[in-house]
Every structure is written in structure tokens, then in C-alpha cells.
Design a protein that fits this description.
By secondary structure, the protein is an all-alpha fold. The protein has one domain: Up-down Bundle (Methane Monooxygenase Hydroxylase, Chain G, domain 1), CATH 1.20.58. Helix content is 81%, strand content 0%. Helix 1 packs parallel to helix 3. The chain is elongated and about 60 Å long. The protein starts with a helix and ends with a helix. 20% of the residues are buried.
Amino acid sequence: MANTKSALKRMRQNEKRRTRNRMTRSQVRTAVKTARAALGERAADARSAVLAAIRALDKAVSKGIVHRNTAARKKSALARRLATPA
């Protein structure tokens, strides 16, 4: 357990940031999962779902929650599947 006032404050900050990061990471995972499902069904909204997932990934990268190479890999895979003819 933390003993100093600054350590206690750091614990509060870390917890707040952890929950915020988890929320963003969860939203990214949901967006990517939705896009993959839309691509699998060849739905008409597949393009918009992929764009939403790419937007979510870019926001997570800018906040430092997801590594940029990880986001690039996921975006590339989604774009490739979107461009592949049925």
C-alpha cells in the first residue's frame, strides 16, 4: 500500500487512466469485430463498418492505447478483406 500523499495520488490517477484505456480498447475491439462480421456476411454496410473500425483504431493510436503497428496491421487486414471480390 502506498504511504506518501504523492503515491496515493498516483494510484488514483493510474486507476482512472486504466479504466479510460480499457473502455477505449473495448470500443476498438467491438468496432473491429463488427467490421469483420459485416465483411463475412457481405452486407451493404461493410464499407461503413470498416471505416468506423479504422477511425476507432486511429483514435486509440493517437491516445497511446494501441501501438501504431498493431493498428496498421488490423487496418490493412480489414482493407484487404473489403477489397477482395466476393
